[in-house]
Amino acid sequence: MQKLLVSVVALIALVAGVVIYNSLPQPQPQALVYDPPRVMEPFSLQGHHGSAISNADLEGQWTLLFTGYTSCPDICPTTMADLKKAMPRLNAKAEAPVKVWMISVDPKRDSLDKLAQYNGYFGPEFLGVRAEHEQLYPFVNGLGLMYSIPAPDQMDYLVNHSSAIVLVNPQGQRHAIFKASHTPGKIPTVDMEQLITDFRLIVRDYR
Predict the structure, then answer these.
(1) In the 8-state DSSP scheme, what is residue 147?
(2) What is the largest CA-CA distance in the chain?
(3) What is the set of domains in the chain, with CATH numbers?
(4) Is there a binding annotation on residue 72?
(5) Which residues face 165 on adjacent strands?
(6) Residue 38 exposed, middle or buried by CB count within 10 Å (0-12, 13-18, 19+)
(7) Sign of torsion, CA 76 179 146 40?
(8) Which residues does the annotation say bind Cu cation (predicted)?
(9) Span 110-114, mean pLDDT?
(10) Confidence of residue 4 (pLDDT cuts 50, 70, 90)
(11) For a Cys-Cys bond, which of 14, 100, 131, 143 suits 45, CB 3.0-4.6 Å?
């Protein structure tokens, strides 16, 4: 009888603990999460493997979209290296695979071969994406990002571009945006530890 009473008390305590836990505020991501996720406009770009890519290529995976270019001296290689290092931890938190699309904002200099070589260094999860400005600019702008277009006669130039990272869910919808932190004296990059934490919370709540 005493053992039964102890078991009943333990069960009541467990249920009470679960109820209390569920009633507590759950941690929320610091990233800007779109609620509901936003449908992406139809697009047609080129992947560094040479094939056309469209909205359908975003489905069935979590995709991190990042604007950059192979001649970028600071933000791009830093962000790509950070994402490469974070990839195992990101993939461990989601059932669907995690991919990275580096969207080149320098189509004049970034050929498919150049993008393939650059992205290949970071791993098979990385895809270089390009298009001419007529298709590229509306696509980037639709993501809530931006970049500058150099004058046609310029050959040696830098491209100003967003350093934020956009998250697309397995249904091919814009789900969140991870904004860069701006610290005096440092290049603006996304805090990768925070991105990993936020990604875990987003995956937790994803339906």
Answers:
(1) B
(2) 90
(3) 29-205 (3.40.30.10)
(4) yes
(5) 66, 178
(6) middle
(7) positive
(8) 72, 76, 161
(9) 97
(10) low
(11) 131
Residues contacting residue 57 through CB under 8 Å, at least 6 positions apart: 47
Token pair of 191 as six digits? 């805090």
pTM of the model: 0.86
């040696």: which residue's tokens? 156
Identity of residue 25: P
CB–CB of 64/143 below 8 Å? Answer: no
Give mean pLDDT, residues 24-43: 91
DSSP annotation of 178 reads E
- Reduced to 3 states, what is the DSSP secondary structure of residue 165? strand
pLDDT of residue 207: 74
Tell me the pLDDT tens digit for each residue of 62-105: 999 999 999 999 999 999 999 999 999 999 999 999 999 999 99
- Token representation of residue 38: 């936003």
Over residues 6-20, the pLDDT tens digits come to 555 545 545 444 444
For residue 66, the surrounding DSSP H or E stretch is strand 62-68
Q: Letter for the amino acid at 101?
A: W
Tokens 């969207």 sit on residue: 103
d(CA 59, CA 57) in angstroms, rounded, equals 6
Q: 132, 145 in Cβ contact below 8 A?
A: no
Length of the chain as a residue count? 207
Gap between the Cα atoms of 98 and 88, Å rounded:
9
